[in-house]
Specification:
Growth Hormone, Chain: A
Length: 299
C-alpha cells in the first residue's frame, strides 16, 4: 500500500444537480466520459502498475555495483531510494492542479514518459550528480502517475473501486517482485548494473502506450457535464491525519527493507542474484498479504 492509496480513503463529492441524478439513472459515468469496457480498463491499469515500482525496487540488488562505480558513501547511496519516496509525498500536493490544468490522462502519459526516459538516463549516468538527477526524474514520474491513477478509477468506475484498486495494488506488487527477483540475475548475466537498470524503462513505455488508449477513449465525452468541486485539504480532519500517519509508517518500513535487504546480503557474501531473490520473497509476501487480509476482513 502506497501514498497514492490515500486518495481512495477520501470521499469524493459530486454536484447535487439534476444532470447528476439523470446520469446515475441512465448508468452514465459521472465524469462526463463514455464508459470504457471493464476488461480494457483492467489491462491498462495492470500495464501501468507493472512499470511503477521497478525503478525503485530494482536498485537494491545493483546498489553495491553503483556504490563501487561512483564511490558513493552510504548516505549518498540511501538517496537513490529516498528521493523517489520523498517525491511521492511532495508531488501529491501539486499533482491535482496539474491534472485540472492539463487533463488527467495527459499528465499520466507525460509522467510515464518522464519515468521511462529517466530510467534510461540513469543507466547511462556518468557522474553522481547525473545519477541522483535521473533518480529524481524516476521519482517524479512514479509520484505523479501513481497519484492520478486511483482518481481515474474513482471517477470513472465508482461502483468498482475496491475491485479495480485490488487489481492495481496486486499488479504493483507483481512488478516489484519481478524486478527484485530478476535484476540481480540480469546484472550477473551482463556483468554490469547498467543494463538491468535501463531495461526497466520498457514496462514504463508499455504503460505509456496503454494509457494513450485510455486518453484517446477519454476524448469522447457525454452530452451532459458535471459541475466540478474543488476540495480543501483536510488539515482539520483527524481521520485524514491518522490515515496519513498509517501510510507514512507503512512506507517507511517497506522502502527501508526494499532499499537495504539486498545490499545487506551482498555484504554478507551472497551473490546479487541470491540477494535479489531474498528481496523478491519479501515483496511476494507483501503481495500475498493484500488479498489474504482482505479476505479475512470480509469473513
Amino acid at each position: 500500500m502506497d501514498f497514492e492509496m490515500l486518495e481512495i480513503c477520501m470521499p469524493e463529492k459530486q454536484a447535487n444537480s439534476p444532470d447528476v441524478h439523470a446520469k446515475r439513472a441512465l448508468g452514465v459515468p459521472l465524469t462526463g466520459r463514455t464508459q470504457m469496457p471493464l476488461g480494457i480498463v483492467i489491462v491498462c491499469l495492470v500495464l501501468v502498475a507493472l512499470g511503477l515500482r521497478p525503478g525503485i525496487v530494482s536498485i537494491g540488488p545493483i546498489l553495491p555495483g553503483m556504490i563501487g562505480d561512483f564511490a558513493l558513501s552510504h548516505t549518498q547511496a540511501s538517496l537513490l531510494a529516498a528521493i523517489p519516496t520523498l517525491f511521492m509525498g511532495l508531488l501529491a500536493l501539486p499533482t491535482p492542479w496539474l491534472a485540472h490544468r492539463f487533463g488527467r490522462d495527459r499528465v499520466i502519459i507525460t509522467a510515464l514518459l518522464v519515468l521511462a526516459l529517466a530510467t534510461v538516463g540513469r543507466a547511462f549516468s556518468g557522474s553522481t550528480a547525473a545519477l541522483l538527477g535521473t533518480t529524481a526524474g524516476v521519482g517524479a514520474g512514479i509520484a505523479v502517475a501513481g497519484a492520478l491513477v486511483p482518481g481515474f478509477v474513482k471517477a470513472g468506475f465508482p461502483g468498482r473501486v475496491a475491485m479495480l484498486m485490488g487489481v492495481y495494488a496486486t499488479a504493483l506488487s507483481v512488478g516489484s517482485t519481478f524486478a527484485a527477483g530478476t535484476t540481480g540475475i540480469l546484472a550477473q548475466l551482463f556483468g554490469t548494473w547498467r543494463v538491468p537498470a535501463g531495461l526497466w524503462a520498457i514496462p514504463a513505455l508499455i504503460g505509456t502506450v496503454a494509457w494513450l488508449h485510455v486518453e484517446k477513449r477519454g476524448r469522447v465525452t457525454a452530452s451532459t457535464t458535471v459541475a466540478r468541486h474543488r476540495h480543501r485539504l483536510p488539515v482539520r480532519n483527524v481521520t485524514a491525519w491518522l490515515a496519513g500517519a498509517f501510510f507514512a509508517f507503512n512506507n517507511l518500513l517497506f522502502y527501508s527493507y526494499v532499499s537495504w535487504i539486498a545490499p545487506l546480503y551482498v555484504e554478507l557474501g551472497r551473490s546479487p542474484t541470491s540477494a535479489g531473490m531474498i528481496l523478491a520473497c519479501f515483496t511476494f509476501a507483501f503481495m500475498a498479504a493484500n488479498p489474504l487480509f482482505g479476505a479475512i476482513q470480509d469473513t
